[in-house]
Design brief:
Blueprint: H1 18-48, H2 58-69, H3 78-81, H4 84-101, H5 107-138, H6 153-168, H7 177-205, H8 212-244, H9 249-260, H10 269-293, H11 297-300
Helix pairs in contact: 1-4, 1-10, 4-5, 5-6, 5-7, 7-8, 8-9, 8-10
Length: 305
Amino acid sequence: MTSPPREAKIIEWDDMDKRKFYGFGFSIMMGIRAGIYPTILVKTRLQVQKHDTFYKGTWDAFKKIIRYEGMRGLYRGFMVNAFTVFSGQCYITTYELTRTKLAHCSNFTRSFVAGGAASLIAQSITVPCDVVSQLLMMQGQTGDGRVIAGVSPVKKTFGVIQTIWVQEGVPGFYRGYLASLLTFIPNSALWWPFYHFYWQQLVSIAPSGVPFIALQAVAGPAAGMTSATLTNPMDIIRTRLQVSGGTSIIETFNELIKEDGMKGLTKGLTARYVATVPTSFMICVSYEFIKRISLKSHLAETLHW
């Protein structure tokens, strides 16, 4: 007899023990954030620089940062950026609760709407952290890529915060907020449907002996690259607005095209892939793992993966 086709079963919010979910989730996501931060720093510097004034590409940027700044240079601004882990908890809670409220809709609709809503909530927390950490990523860098030393990371952080507060007040911490929403809401809204789509397609063609977690490990990066490609132009504009100021999204876009033509819309895309692929891999695998070990006891015994 032919065995019935496997079903790509999604663990829902009501299936999980929330204490386990948040406890394991916070620790694992902090580790992921530390692992991918260097690629975020490189992407930021590439997107902000005009033409190829110092860094000639992703790998060149990595080499020069390590040469001139050491390994610590890859973690400039990490202390502030680490606070985005809390926004990550808000993100996933919003995502799961929204999916629950839309239980009557198709999985595509649930994933698309929930992903967008989760990003909307999270960005209100993330943007101020991004503004400060991105300025710290760039702080002290001279024309030849060298970095002015002698100031502790804590003093640099408070110095940046004080400067923003004195010069711009609260609005200064929300530079590029609209651009962030226009970047991350579509990115998040696209990532989840693509993730579930790729996973379901892989389940339908993979041999029955292949574990679901292995298929999810492939579906996550595929979804990440798809959404990153579609939203990269707005990500460049967002980064420039947050780091350099600027007056509007349209003006920044026109300036970018004037500098490098349509090719400018791919600035930092390789670095974004380098960040997105392992991030999507780690997030989907760790998230699915967290959900499985957080299953309520009576479900853990009945569900097979």
